[in-house]
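S1.2 Input.
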Amino acid sequence: MDLKQLNAFIAVADLRSFSAAATKTGLSQPSLSRLLKQLETDMGVVLIDRYHRPLHLTEAGSFFYDKISTILTEIDTVTSMTQRLSAPSSVLNIGFVPSVLYGLLPEIIATLKQFSPDIDVNLKDISSYQQMDALKSGEIDVGFGRFAHQDPWIQQILLRHERYVVALPKSHPLANVRKQRLIDLANNRLILYHQTHLPVSSTVTTETATQSNDKLSTSRVNRAATHESASSEPITEPLLHLFAQYGISPFMTTTVSDLQVALGLVAAGEGITLVPASLQTVRTEQISYQRLVHENVTSPIYLHTLKDFVHPKIPNLLTAIYHVYEQRGITYRQQNFVSQA
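S1.3 Output.
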């Protein structure tokens, strides 16, 4: 068995078509078919049922696909990392989620360039989830994200927690209330915008809600508890997770593609949402941003990179980050990435 055979199998398994797989791999259909047949002969196993359209994987083929695709991804990652180790790029490619760009990222990049005038920075708007693959492929060297990830190839550090604020239409009855409670927001349409969901479930009970400082109404707490017990699905949507921590289930939700669309709907009076405090300068003509009384309703900011290859300019980036935090009076715990290469 060799890589050509394995890549041929993966292409056919992904596309369920010899002709489509041949186009993807640049091979002729006879060559592709021959490579796949050689692989099956070497293994003594039929991997693809050729008598169905579209093609089906056999039970053995499905098992082999799940295992070998992970191995091939690791081979690609190791190859990319080896190439970068032998010839590190002078450019620092930084991935970021849009909400970070509205915060301190521009100031951090300006500080980085001030401290290191010779540095060349390339910024890429990319979701927290997609940053994991982008780091492995070499598309980015480091990423700012909002979610913790468990990945054997990635190391990450928590930079800080940023408080959420509630975004309401200027015409909303609560628009001028300076300290908001989640329970008072529960009867509004909550606009959801996260593309990445939490990797863990939240367990919600009426006791959790009672322990908060809110004077929750019995009917609302019971409604939340009933919603949770009736659903077998874990609550992984970040904003719903925040409400669920207090035993609250919003009356109605709408899901949109990104944060800018969510704020556009708020501005149009179509609902409310929660955003990191750094976004409270956006659309201020139509939107009122107010603090939440809950101190633990926060959005973390993580910085992540590869475990086995830390770009030589990343320490400079961390220095700039902590300098800005000190200038702004932001509490943080200084950390550094560990290079294992």
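S1.4 Remarks. The chain is about 40% helix and 20% strand.
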